[in-house]
Amino acid sequence: MFTYILKRLLIMIPTLFGITIVTFIIINLAPGSPIEQKIQQMKFGGMGHENSGSGKGGDKSSAVSEEVIEALKKQYGFDKPIHVRYWIWLKNIAHLDFGESFTYEEPVMDVIVSKIPVSLQFGVVSLIMSYLVCVVLGVMKAVKHGSTFDHVTSFILFVLYSIPDFMLAILLIVYFAGGSFYNWFPMGELYSDNYYDLTLWGKIFDRVHHFILPLICYMIGSFTVLSLLMKNSLLDEIKKDYIRTARAKGLDEKKVYLKHALRNALIPIVTGIGGFISVFFAGSIILESIFQLDGMGLLGYKSILQRDYNVIMGIIFIESVLLLVGNLISDMAYIAVDPRIDFK
Fold first, then answer.
1. Residue 159 scores a pLDDT above 50
2. How far is CA 231 from CA 161, 175, 234, 259, in A?
3. Which of 57, 84, 155, 338 sits between 20 and 30 A of 248, alpha carbons compared?
4. What is the pTM of this model?
């Protein structure tokens, strides 16, 4: 097992190298560099002079000289060839230095760390809630397969699955967050302005109050898939010979399901645990925009629009590391669930 983990860790190095070099080339060759963004800001900043002077004089005042452009290129490091810039970026990464954000004018790591808590909280809570509810619901549906409970819950799950998360978010806001009907839940941020003045239970209630609507939207995408996957996986297991043998020995039906079949049925479920690690970090662009949550998803979206290359590269690098580590954790989870699995 140690040898397998070591191999996987070594494979991560060229994989990360490939991801970063492809990403670096793509974003640097895309139109609308930070230099162009800055030049546009300078031109729009000179529009007041343009309006106050004559036509030709206004055009000159809004023009940006070559000296200024060269100075901007040197400031942002664009005076060097792309392969030299990538090599400099790669050397800095060895010290976890992602450079400085062009937009926020702060170290990229500080910008990212300031946004992580929002996405991380929703990611962790949605993972725990999804697996707790979906595993239990999937087992109940398998035990009561073909019953009224199974048909009703399947209908509800498919209805929920058919609703896009952004559409559900809009509907929840309109109906329950002061849109046009009820004002039961707050909008924006993770807590109220008077949060630090509240008691412990007041703080817990305030957090839950802010979490409910976004959390529903975060969970809806995986809720149906996980529940039906758990049900179908358990139904497949109870058809196998070792389950028939357990039943033939006269074991209680609950013990057959929960002790013998459930553990093996969990194997397909644990495959998604590792992938959730990157989801914790990435957040959701749409949901964070709709619910006014300043998290990682919104940061990535704004960084792309503003061509903040250092922030984009920092986000992609960290997400890639988390995804690779998550895949390794999924393999470890296989062994925890079924010791018969042996990776060599």
1. yes
2. 16, 33, 5, 16
3. 338
4. 0.76
